Amino acid sequence: MKANKNTARIAGFLYLLQIPFGTFGIMYIPKFLVSQGSVSTTISNILANEFLYKLSIVSAILCALITVGTAIFIYITLKLVNIFWAKAIVLFALLAAPISILNELNNIAVLILIKNHEINSGLSVNEIQSLVLLFLRLHEYGMQLIGIFFGLWLLPMGYLVIKSNYIPKLIGILLLLTCLGYLFDFLTFLFFSDFKIVLSEYTWLGEVLMVLWLLVRGRVPDTEKKQFLELK
Known about the structure:
Layout: H1 2-33, H2 39-48, H3 50-78, H4 83-115, H5 117-120, H6 125-152, H7 154-163, H8 169-191, H9 205-217, H10 222-231
Helix pairs in contact: 1-3, 1-9, 3-4, 4-6, 4-7, 6-8, 7-8, 8-9
């Protein structure tokens, strides 16, 4: 029982770590450095905050790796309910992580363009600005693509929570709503670019409650363990 609770707490702690790393690594650049409608201002902001810009890249990469670790420990915690769907949680995290890491190459490309004079010496100011804008847009699209998997890993998680007899079903329902929020945001971003509402900003409660359950409660009843062993 103690080992199981420790596993859940590790899962909760890793899940909790995603918040500061993800917020800084993923939201810092678009929220504070990218100036809408002014590429020159964006470039100036990046140059003036180069260390923080690089730190946000590292933070985004760490967040991707932490997500995989979180998925593995959640898998261990929930596999007693249904091992197939528990494996799906890890699968979606493993799909999201490399895309997230590779997507940071777009931010690195921006830094190379504005800092490396050997590369940008043959380019005009307008050409440099156009390329910077291109890479920033590619990064934005990459983040939306990653959002698909950040949503999809909540689908089996929510299902397992609902099917379990030891986690409040409300958490599972809210996790499914969070999943739909991520998927909805991707579709509106892709097909309705003028739609400004980001639904996932309002559907995050399920993940917070899941973190709290893992950290505070996080214990699988012995009856669940016995049933799992009998099925095996």
